[in-house]
Automatic annotation (TrEMBL):
SMART domains: REC. PANTHER family: STRESS RESPONSE REGULATOR PROTEIN 1, TWO-COMPONENT RESPONSE REGULATOR-RELATED. PROSITE patterns: RESPONSE_REGULATORY. Pfam families: Response_reg (PF00072). The keyword Phosphoprotein applies. The modification 4-aspartylphosphate is found at D53. Keywords: Phosphoprotein. It comes from Tahibacter soli. This is Response regulator. The keyword Phosphoprotein applies. Residues 5-119, 143-257 form the Response regulatory domain. GO terms for biological process: phosphorelay signal transduction system.
Length: 304
């Protein structure tokens, strides 16, 4: 079997040499300092994984990964940067839909594990035929859960979605998980607040329990470290700042509902939302019971 193709992009030759040495034994490595050249590579051959720096002279890593996603959606995308500024982290979620956000100086084993997992996912996807888009009715009949103490959030969501979409409202994590255990929801919109470790932990565990549910996090917090954890350990689909903008929320909900319909139509695509094992999450045992119920419901649906 041929080696998976790994594209490395960084404007520093020294970094590229180090990365290439790390991966050359197991991958067909293509390395470049030029974002334009990287796009040419993706257009000319199948690329399983791309690892890109964020800060480069001609193009940011987020912009590059977004363009690669548009041209080759099966290519798995990893952002590797020494400058984890909040704007880049948010853009990596909302624009690049990256698989992992990793920082320099990198942990070699962690980086190798992330690339290996991404390569396995991409290899399986490249081997499968492209499926037709799901029918529109799969999107308009979905359920959306809003986890927020502010009632105006649910009102805004209700006004943006068609009447055929069912809106479930919860003000606590336990209530939200109970609803998720009763019926599958396409999307959860959850607010993150100071001291909301239970919400953050729940979002991380939810993706493990049911990767088909897309999470949109919203918050007035400006915490890049928190968002990186939610990318890597929770595969959060979008992050929106509060107060919520109507158009941004509409686009996020539309994209999430569309992705959920794609996952329902082609369940194997859920591999792309695999997460790192979260660091220890402390939740009451009764709350953990909900995750077991959600996981079991997801298994039963997959088997049906």
């Amino acid at each position: 079997m041929s080696k998976p193709c790994l594209l490395l992009v960084d404007d520093e030759e020294r970094i590229l040499r180090s990365l290439a040495m790390l991966f050359r034994a197991h991958y067909d490595v293509v390395a470049t300092t030029d974002g334009v050249e990287a796009l040419k590579v993706v257009r000319s051959r199948p690329v399983h994984v791309v690892v890109s720096d964020q800060r480069m002279p001609a193009i940011t890593g987020v912009d590059l990964l977004r363009q690669i996603r548009d041209h080759s959606p099966r290519t798995m995308r990893i952002l590797l940067t020494g400058y984890a500024d909040l704007a880049a982290v948010e853009a990596s979620v909302n624009d690049g839909e990256i698989f992992r956000f990793l920082e320099k100086p990198w942990d070699a084993l962690k980086l190798q594990d992330a690339v290996a997992q991404a390569a396995d996912i991409a290899h399986a996807e490249f081997a499968e035929p492209i499926r037709v888009a799901p029918p529109p009715e799969a999107i308009v009949a979905a359920r959306v859960l809003v986890l927020d103490e502010d009632p105006s959030t649910a009102m805004l969501v209700r006004g943006l979605l068609p009447p055929s979409c069912a809106i479930t409202i919860a003000t606590t994590v336990e209530a939200a998980l109970a609803r998720l255990g009763e019926a599958e929801h396409a999307v959860i919109l959850a607010e993150l607040k100071h001291g909301s470790d239970d919400v953050i932990g729940a979002l991380k565990l939810l993706k493990q329990a049911n990767p088909h549910t897309l999470a949109i996090a919203c918050s007035s917090l400006r915490d890049g470290r928190l968002l990186i954890d939610l990318i890597n350990q929770g595969q959060v689909f979008r992050f929106l700042p509060k107060p919520l903008g109507r158009e941004l929320l509409r686009r996020a909900l539309t994209a999430a509902l569309d992705r959920h319909a794609q996952l329902a139509h082609d369940p194997q695509r859920a591999r792309r939302h695999a997460v790192e094992a979260p660091r220890e999450v402390s939740l009451p045992s009764r709350v953990m019971d909900y995750f077991r119920r959600i996981r079991e419901n997801a298994r039963q649906k997959a088997a049906s």
